[in-house]
Amino acid sequence: MKVLLTGASGQLGQALIASRPTDVALIALRRQDLDLADTQACRQVVALHRPDWVLNAGAYTAVDRAESEPKLAQAVNALAPRAFAEALGDQGGRLLQISTDFVFSGRQGSPYLPEQAKDPLGVYGVTKAAGEEAALRLAGAVVLRTSWLYGPVGDNFCRTMLRLMGERKQLGVVADQVGCPTSTATLAKACWQLIRVERSDAPRLLHWSDAGVASWYDFAVAIADLGQSLGLLLNPSRITPITTADYPTPARRPAYSLLDSTASRALLSLEPVHWRRALEQVLRRIASLEFSPVH
């Protein structure tokens, strides 16, 4: 099986490369190899490699900056999936489009099912929602939404917290936004398993996150506790809960974006991993890669 992966240098891309099944011929494209804002290049790379699957893990993920760069966010998050879908429709092949909990507003206060109507709050969510719709025009496309993604490499909340906890005595972290942290390792496993599913009745729109529920404050406290127990942090910051209003940002964020992953777990025959257990595995990996204890 030949799989063309976008976003290969990103945190999910690196997890996908590390966990590639042995029978997959992987064409891993970094940003310098393929500019997702160039729709013609997206079409050409499909025509050149003729993959069985395009796994589109690349995205414009700067949520706040997207508010001032809507055209670039639209090009990467919406027009690139459309180009992949059109090119694959011309020559054959399937598309796995990675999407986000930010396609929902978070107003309902209960876990979102895959088929629920989208109602994004900002440019990032709007463009990702458009990318979903464009991808699903291809009969062989599947959209997999995830939430609060983090891993041992790249820019993410976990690594940022580790750095800040080594620099500051006190940190305020938002406690009134609720969702579920998801490890790149568990998401990558789900992606590879999904590509192997051959059921004709398989849903085309799925959710995947780790198990459990947390606020950003809960996540930060767990990073501090586990980081200290693993020797990554000697004297972690004192973490205090704050509200969204205390920390205004250019983009609005959903207050409750928990995803219901029941259908995907059943389809993929994967046991749920609680987010705190997954976090410990990520922190152990970070400890083995690069970090020295910080005060």
Descriptive notes:
With 295 residues, this protein is of the alpha/beta class. It has a domain at 2-147 and 183-210 and 258-272: Rossmann fold, CATH 3.40.50. The protein contains nine helices and twelve strands. The strands form four sheets. It has a six-stranded parallel sheet, sandwiched between helices. It has a two-stranded parallel sheet with strand order 6-9. A two-stranded parallel sheet has the order 7-12. α3 runs parallel beside α4 (123-135). It is globular and about 55 Å long.
Report a brief summary of the structure:
This protein is an alpha/beta fold and 295 residues long. The chain is built from 9 helices and 12 strands.
Strand and helix order:
EHEHEHEHEEHEEEHEEHEHH
Distance between the termini: 47 Å
Kindly state the percentage of residues in helix: 25-40%
What about the largest sheet?
A: 6 strands, parallel
Whole-number mean pLDDT = 95
Question: At CATH's second level, what is the architecture of the domain at 2-147 and 183-210 and 258-272?
Answer: 3-Layer(aba) Sandwich
Give the DSSP E fraction (strand runs of 2 or more residues): 15-25%
Radius of gyration over all CA atoms, rounded: 19 Å
For the record, the CATH class of the domain at 2-147 and 183-210 and 258-272 is: Alpha Beta
CATH topology of the domain at 2-147 and 183-210 and 258-272: Rossmann fold
Q: Which strand order do you get reading across the main beta sheet? A: 2-1-3-4-5-10
Count of strand segments: 12
Assigned CATH superfamily of the domain at 2-147 and 183-210 and 258-272: NAD(P)-binding Rossmann-like Domain
Tally of helical segments: 9
